[in-house]
Amino acid sequence: MRKLFWGLSLFFVLFAIALAVLPLEQFAFIPVALGLIFGYSALRKSAPEHQKLPKILLGTSLVILVFIIGKIALSEDEVVQDTRFEQQKTESKKEAQKELEELEELE
Amino acid sequence: MRKSFFIFCLIMAMQPVFAQIKSGEKFTYAASYNMGGMMTHLAQVTMETETVKTAKNSYLHLSCQAATFSKWDSFFKIRDLYESYVDPATLRPNLYKRSIDEGGYTKTEKYAFKGNSITSTVKKKNKKETKKVFTVGGSTQDVVSILYKLRTVDFSKFTAGQTKSFTIVFDQKEIPVVVKYMGRETVSAGNLGKKECYKISISAKTDALKGKDKNLIWLTADAKKIPALIKFSIPVGTGQLALSSASGI
Predict the structure, then answer these.
(1) Count of beta carbons in the 10 Å neighbourhood of residue B89
(2) Cβ of A92 under 8 Å from any chain B Cβ?
């Protein structure tokens, strides 16, 4: 049972890390919570000499939790200045002006 | 005298159309997509209007741009540009352009309107450019100008459930569009605060939109009729565009 809790905690902690690194941090709360629950369960079931690993998993879960909260609170939704896209828009407008003039000539 | 009075009345009758869609408008939206029940902010959508002049005419340039937020750019970069050049008075399109780049998939489209005929040019990634000439009805709009045309409808006189029909051209096909007035609702409209809006349902005979009354638009219930919120349901999911800022109105 201890090994099962340990394994599940490790799985959810790794899953939470992946989501936290990707722009999907808001989805990482559930795996972090599960990582904490299974890590704590593994700690409860472990003899004192085997508690090092569950403690590491619990600690890692807490660090990820702080990271996610910080990322959500501090990161802003912003669009970077894309010079290629800006250039494309300018060129498109210039082309359109020509095309409109060609259409007018057909009238 | 009677003639000048008639002209005056005609100008006054046309006034709302001129007044509503102004050059220099800029609306910015936060586009969110429903991922596992959670709305995830994905991109910024900007709708702008601008006057474009040629030697003979003056046009209203309606543009709609979508760009993913920087955090998504490394995973799925979107840079879409939809443009329509319309008659400022009637909002009838003369030229429609679409250039999309969605995660590396590119497509460009151009529709040149000439009377009731459209000459379309389409270029998809890794495919040859195709040209087609087809005829459409006299009041057919493109997908950009229809949004602006909708803003010229006087919904204050509508009763809940009342509909109005339009025709748009999309993917080289004419598609009938029915808009249904569903009543009034107060929604958040970005820097404009909370606004009472006309809730409109849009349905079209196309696979691009899904569900009944699932594609909705909230237009502020005032003379400007600014789209404050847009909810959409497409084959791959649902999402929304929430107004974050409106300027030049």
Answers:
(1) 12
(2) yes
